[in-house]
Give the backbone structure.
Amino acid sequence: MPNDRPRDDVRAPLPAVDVTHLPSPLHLYLRALLTSRKPAEARALPTLAFARRNVALDASAIARYAQLCGFRDANAVPPTWPHLLAFPLHMLLMTDRAFPFAMLGMVHLANRIRSHATLSPGDRIDLDVRSGALHAHDKGQAFTVVTTARRDGAVVWTGESLYLRTGVHDALGTPYRAELSAGAALEASRTWQVPADLGRRYARLSGDYNPIHLWPVTARLFGFRRPIIHGMWSFARVLAEVLPPHADDLDLLVEFKTPVLLPGEVTFWRAAHGGVFELRDAAGAVPHLRGRWQAPAPSSSSFHTEPQS
């Protein structure tokens, strides 16, 4: 397993480790538990990269995902689907012995997706996941995990996931700041019920069996009074509402604000003009996420940072 690499390789540039057989979700979460012994210290990220080759875009799995997330065209590949395929590689990276931070309790702050071409069920893609930039955050150390999908050698999709390890002092990197402000004029558009079993249903599709998403008893072990839904389900659900059909050149950004407790009710808010949106609580007062979409995808990169003084 990649976790068995010797410790003295931490600083050396490493080629991507080809993953031919994905570990089970149980095995991945046992690895995550073992990372809890890592100290909350600011440390540079090693060069870590994992790859899967010739990954099929399975039509039946995509159709089930589209139905659960509200995408109307079950025959299209939602722009969030490659993230789902890459998530086990994210876990391998963050549970690697060389990775400096404990994974349990990690907070998913934001996600940026750039889609450059139409993907179709039956396509085969190569996935590359590697450690990215560090960002200083007022609650700890933020870092990015960068995913690239290629079809026949050409880049068709990229994703940047921003995670936060809380409790780290003197964090490294340029200071992170949210790109999306709360000042946009938005109108209430939809109200959705989120049932108690939604986290378990999404886990079966995504392989993300984090205990905070499953049952009240497992969520309480991590400080939540009820399970919370996966942030990427919430992001996919609002994208299903706002994206035009057959859009193949997109720049998508989401910033996660507060968790959605299960069961519950959420409200969807959007700008009358433009691609800004929010998912809020039932009263429309507390944002769960804030996002925007635009096309075509610009060439500018990464999350917003503040200049260091």
